[in-house]
């Protein structure tokens, strides 16, 4: 446990940021899984809606620095390719 006041504050702020990061990361993964589930089921409209949501969540994770821009591009490309091969 830190003794310096600024270090204590840094610990509190890091814990808050970690909670937000976990939330953004898990929501991104959940959106991707939902999309993949709809693709396997063959629901085109639901897959299309879930693709849009997944892309938004990937972009949010990228802009907050949780995911590298190349990984975000790769994920979006793979998901779009899955949707296009479905049709």
Structural commentary:
By secondary structure, the protein is mostly helical. It has a single domain (5-86), classed as Methane Monooxygenase Hydroxylase, Chain G, domain 1 (Up-down Bundle). It is 86% helix and 0% strand. The chain contains three helices and no strands. Helix 1 packs antiparallel against helix 2 (44-63) and helix 1 (5-41) runs parallel beside helix 3 (69-86). It is elongated, with a radius of gyration of 17 Å. The protein starts with a helix and ends with a helix.
What are the main properties of this structure?
0% strand; Methane Monooxygenase Hydroxylase, Chain G, domain 1; elongated; 87 residues; mainly alpha; single chain
Shape summary: elongated
List the helices and strands in order. HHH
What's the helix count? 3
Any idea how many domains?
Answer: 1
Topology, element by element:
Blueprint: H1 5-41, H2 44-63, H3 69-86
Please sum up the structure shown.
The protein is mainly α and 87 residues long. Helices cover 86% and strands 0% of the residues.
């Amino acid at each position: 446990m830190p003794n310096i006041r600024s270090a204590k504050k840094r610990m509190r702020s890091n814990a808050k940021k970690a909670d937000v990061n976990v939330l953004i990361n898990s929501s991104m993964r959940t959106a991707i899984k939902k999309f993949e589930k709809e693709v396997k089921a063959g629901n085109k409209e639901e897959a299309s809606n879930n693709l849009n949501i997944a892309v938004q969540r990937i972009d949010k994770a990228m802009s907050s620095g949780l995911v590298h821009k190349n990984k975000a591009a790769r994920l979006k490309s793979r998901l779009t390719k899955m949707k296009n091969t479905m049709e």
